[in-house]
Amino acid sequence: MERLVGKYCKIVTKEPGEDRASVVTGILEDVDYKDGFILIDSEQGLGCLRINTIVAIKPGRKRELESEKKKIKNNEKGVVGIGTLIIFIAMVLVAAVAASVIMQTAENLQRRAYAVGKDTIRDVSSGVQIVSVTGYTDAAKTKIEYLAISITPRAGSYDLDLNKTLIHIKYNNYSILNLNNNAKASNVSGDGVFHTLDMSNLTSTHYGAITIHDSDNSIYTVNGIGSEDHVMLVVNLTAVVSESGGLGDGETLEGKVVPEYGAASVFVVKAPNAFTYRVVEL
User: Fold this and answer.
1) What is the number of domains present in the chain?
2) Is the dihedral of CA 37, 39, 42, 46 positive or negative?
3) N or C: which end of the chain has fewer CB within 10 A?
């Protein structure tokens, strides 16, 4: 073994009582016959082997040892490559989920923005316009008992639902009136506006409607007001202003017509100090 000192060797050892042999590869550093050991520098480090456990020693080559190192390194690279692949796949999955969430969010935002824009345009461009407000007094011409509010949609307005149009009236109290479908007329009778409807259907919470212009008869049939339609809303002030039975001379009444969407129209009327006729333009 002295000849093998300093050389790469392949040492086969077998412990007593074991069936399988072990192989150690490394540089044989020294041989100690006195104590029965050899000193070998292997990949695990510097160590000793008992001479009596050595079955065989075969000189090796440096290239063989380097090839074994390369194999180990290649195996390590393979492990690293699999780990990198797993991380890459995980990143692709995370990116796909994030992209899906972003696309869905963008789609929802786009749909929401479209709906908000459409509603905004509708609210800005739509609404009602008050053409005139006319009053009708009692027989003694002491107070105004009924109001006729003539309205039409604003220019460029969407169609409005008269059944969802409210009248707010502020006097000594605050009243809100909606349409009574039993108090509608498709045209003005020969006796005039204030004799067209059954006034008993007009209460403190309901107003009536008389069609002035409606080419498709939509106001009377489905309460729909188109862009060229014209309708007159009739209010019973004796019911709304019940404490005084109507609007007396010189008194002021405020109100507004509020459609289902779009701009509302405000009106402020003041009764004259003296009534010349029963029909009073306010």
Assistant:
1) 2
2) positive
3) N
